[in-house]
Design goal:
Shape: rod-shaped
Order of helices and strands: HHHH
Number of helices: 4
Subcellular location: Cell membrane
Strand content: under 5%
Protein name: Sec-independent protein translocase protein TatA
Number of strands: 0
Pfam families: TatA_B_E
Oligomer: single chain
Function: Part of the twin-arginine translocation (Tat) system that transports large folded proteins containing a characteristic twin-arginine motif in their signal peptide across membranes. TatA could form the protein-conducting channel of the Tat system.
InterPro entries: TatA/B/E (IPR003369), TatA/E (IPR006312)
Radius of gyration: 32 Å
Length: about 90
């Protein structure tokens, strides 16, 4: 009661063939097949490229503690100002 029988499926296929014709359906099938093939190729190429570099961005990821240490070595005056402000 809930499924499509073989006869109903054959009737739908016959109506589609009568509406569009076999040449258009053959061309549509070929276009669809080449699109699926191109999609699969692009996905496999993307997986191969993804294995080489595990980064999504163009910059190097650093931890917050490393950035803090780097900023302290670059600008020691700022470090002393913040220590003075902490005492107040």
């Amino acid at each position: 009661m809930g499924g499509i029988s073989v006869w109903q499926l054959l009737i739908v296929v016959l109506i589609v063939v009568l509406l569009f014709g076999t040449k258009k359906l053959r061309g549509l099938g070929g276009d669809l097949g080449s699109a699926v093939k191109g999609f699969k190729k692009a996905m496999s190429d993307d997986e191969k490229d993804g294995d080489k570099d595990q980064q999504d961005a163009d910059f190097k990821q650093e931890s917050l503690s490393a950035k803090k240490e780097q900023s302290e070595t670059v600008n020691p005056e700022h470090q002393e100002k913040t220590k003075d402000n902490d005492r107040v």
